[in-house]
Amino acid sequence: MNLIALIAALVYALVFNFFPAPLANWRTLFVIGVLPALLVVFIRSNVPESPVWEQQQQRHRAAGISPWQSIWQAISSRPFLFIYVIILMTAFNCLSHGTQDNYPTFLQAQLKIGVTGTTIITAIANVGAIIGGTLFGYYSQRWGRRRAIIVACCLGIIMIPLWSGWLKLPNISLLYTLPIGAFLLQFMVQGAWGVVPVHLNELSPNDVRGTFPGFAYQLGNLFAAQIIFAQALLAANMGQNKIPNYTAALGIFSLGAFVAVMILTALGREARGIEFIKTDNDVEFSTSEQPA
């Protein structure tokens, strides 16, 4: 995801710096953004299904159970797990979208940074995100999923003042401090996110592991979608002279999202090291606790 965001930042700079004026607009970016969807054809044709999914499909066909029936059975038999994961994913999506989506707007609308500067800072932030997600995801195997997420969030909170422009170092321009803050904060944000794919799959019921994580994630994404509008509204209300105060809005929302992710993660279970190929009742939310 962050690799795509990094590429998008570079495409943004290309379009607005080198395309003629009639084409330098959001419509051109939208058309270019559709092109990667063509990769679906390659993936669908060449990437095999996982052995776990194939095993589940064989069992469902043998039992005469449709995919929707299996999903409903999994949800109705584990309602607290389902609700917990949706709320957790809502908090995570508030964290990622709340620290990424309005950041270029903050750079341009409040700080009046141009296309090139916005591209450079955004690209640096996404490089940090890629590195952070990779490292925290890797070390979560040693530290435990919940511990890795909580550590990333704690460190991320420390980075908020530098990332949001609230911390201004004497005799040093924000053009130098913001890229550092953006790199470090996204390192921690996506460090926490780097644990999510495996953690979410480990918490998921074995019989719908191919569907449950994506379903819960997208519902969380849906519920978190309003955070961008809320941030923009708060920034406008806190601003002066028609200049929005994204420094305060981004800082408040990111702090809240970090804290929410930490609390929800701590309240959840650690399922590191479970065996995915088991019988349906082997993987339950109430019995998957393992030492972190």
From TrEMBL:
GO terms for cellular component: plasma membrane. Residues 1-272 form the Major facilitator superfamily (MFS) profile domain. It is a multi-pass membrane protein. The keyword Transmembrane applies. It comes from the Bacteria. Gene3D superfamilies: MFS general substrate transporter like domains (1.20.1250.20). The chain crosses the membrane at residues 30-47, 80-99, 111-136, 148-167, 173-195, 215-234, 246-268. One of its GO terms (molecular function) is carboxylic acid transmembrane transporter activity. Its main location: membrane. Keywords: Membrane, Transmembrane, Transmembrane helix. SUPFAM superfamilies: MFS general substrate transporter (SSF103473). It is found in: Cell membrane. This is Major facilitator superfamily (MFS) profile domain-containing protein. It comes from Dictyobacter kobayashii.
